[in-house]
């Protein structure tokens, strides 16, 4: 039987079960409206939890002097517990906004456990406390959104961002700082989408937001929920959509302020025993076949869409979810036997299909991106065809290729065919997000592309008052070329990690014991590109104009490029996409006069982007007033061709001005 049909049948069956037992996925995904703690219209309090392994459940906090047992929950069917606390006689709020709460669990073995509700909307860590405190978040006035969601962009240009490191100061930056200082930069650079990392609350800052402790809480280290809502709303006012980096692949092992051992057992939200632990990540793994786990995770998706108005998600750790082996120690050759068999966690795949179905049902213009290194077929195909339902997948082989070239090969030994293959090797009709580097490449133990290219000379030779050294010259030229060829050839969307557009030096490292809790590498030095005497501005200018040109011509939304040349000896790559002619000369020293390049149509061509221009730190070897005429002279499989001067280490985009823009 067709395995895509099998997967679709399993998805349809669970969706049908949800309809029959819960009144449909719309109601099922509203778990946060009843679970957790809620103020009732009469001033009372309604509380609900799922704790199947608990002997007893109680609510305690500031409101009752921390008496652990004075407010017991009533046991319901299927491991659920509920509590109604009537209002005070004067109808005043029983649990005031900002007061502390805890769920008390008595376990089957007689332990008394103090827990944070899995549905908590705000948690904070005060002073030197190790653990987070659950704060009842019920402000008198909620944030009122002023701007509607922007329309889904035809081309996706993503600025991957982390609020905490967005300042040049050695501290955790705030939502307010990001809204006021970083959003205008993103808009000015021509990005139309922000991917926000490390928003879901995580106790350990250095986990980069990937060890989630409270799934419904926006991280309080950057500010309040209302300040995050204002950030998203402000981005929308600029025409920028905002994606959340959602982590449903695993959860923190913390029990005092996380989901682990919530009801006193090692199961509850997770698989029991070894299957419930990711050995490499030292974290817990969800039981995606569990009814209440599905309710929790699908409600979490809806919460971020509706409460904060996110426009979609980048799903983290999809490879780990898809396979029982979690991708650990596995190589993926592309053989179908790797993707269809007992090693696939079909329950996790069904959950991802349900999540995508929910997202696109609630917000048809929303976007979902899968972080999958395995290349699972049909992950980005429609669910109706048995696919995973994602809109895009990350082209994760591309940054690895650039790092490999820079680390292992001399410039003159770069293989043009290998570069083109890596940039174009994607499944038909499955859209990819191309990127030269993301946060992964900048983490400690590795370094940014700019630092691979220029290393220690970035500290001494980036001033425009000093002559170009060979290292800085090479670094600046290749940094632009790598980005443009990735942007133009690598996918149907493009991603850049904050700061890397201008060649941010060094690497990323969060405060931890190993670095004496230093913030030195956990910041973004945007002032470097604002300094007119430093060469960072050239890379920033190029990134801006590259994005603006894509906005004008839409090559990311166009069909895949036609590559007419990948010449190993000359180190030249040429391709056409969206009616533009892209030409790259990667040779470190050779320039070519009257170099013939194939093209589809006759006409007059003009340069519309030139990496060698003065404003990009180039050598100004090309005259932009020159007209290039293509003629009916077949070359490299193209019916027409033109002659062009291509200096060494230069990227060019030419436009046929005889065609309508």
Automatic annotation (TrEMBL):
GO biological process, one term: glycogen biosynthetic process
Group of enzyme by EC: transferase
Pfam families: Alpha-amylase, Alpha-amylase_C, CBM_48
SUPFAM superfamilies: (Trans)glycosidases, E set domains, Glycosyl hydrolase domain
Chain ranges of the Glycosyl hydrolase family 13 catalytic domain: 181-527
Keywords: Glycogen biosynthesis, Glycosyltransferase, Phosphoprotein, Transferase
Entry's EC annotation: 2.4.1.18
CDD domains: AmyAc_bac_euk_BE (cd11321), E_set_GBE_euk_N (cd02854)
UniProt key word Iron: no
This protein's GO CC annotations: cytosol
Keyword field contains Glycoprotein: no
Enzyme active site: 316, 371
An example Gene Ontology molecular-function term: 1,4-alpha-glucan branching enzyme activity
Coiled coil: none
SMART domains linked: Aamy
Signal peptide limits: none
Pathway annotation: Glycan biosynthesis; glycogen biosynthesis
Catalyzed chemical reaction(s): Transfers a segment of a (1->4)-alpha-D-glucan chain to a primary hydroxy group in a similar glucan chain
InterPro entries membership: A-amylase/branching_C (IPR006048), Branching_enzy (IPR037439), GH (IPR017853), GH13_cat_dom (IPR006047), Glyco_hydro_13_N (IPR004193), Glyco_hydro_b (IPR013780), Ig-like_fold (IPR013783), Ig_E-set (IPR014756)
Family indicated by similarity: Belongs to the glycosyl hydrolase 13 family. GlgB subfamily.
PANTHER family xrefs: 1,4-ALPHA-GLUCAN-BRANCHING ENZYME
Function: Glycogen-branching enzyme participates in the glycogen biosynthetic process along with glycogenin and glycogen synthase. Generates alpha-1,6-glucosidic branches from alpha-1,4-linked glucose chains, to increase solubility of the glycogen polymer.
Subunit structure as annotated in this protein's UniProt entry: Monomer.
Protein name: 1,4-alpha-glucan-branching enzyme
Organism: Pan troglodytes (Chimpanzee)
Gene name tied to this protein: GBE1
